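[job 4471] stage=fold_predict status=RUNNING
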Amino acid sequence: MAYRTTGLMVGQIQDDELRRAGLDPATAVTLALDPGDLAIWTLYTVHGASANTSGRDRRFVING
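[job 4471] inference complete, writing structure tokens
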């Protein structure tokens, strides 16, 4: 289950939680990126990522 700690979302949302929100986990799309690649989506796109194991921070931009 996802939970908040110090303002950051941690954990992983389970499939049943997605279904309760009206989302079908079977329609999830895996986006494979190479180092230096960039993914852009809108605030309406449900998204997530696996753990960052690189030892470097992920870069992000909030535009709005």
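[job 4471] summary: The longest strand covers residues 3-5.
[job 4471] exit 0
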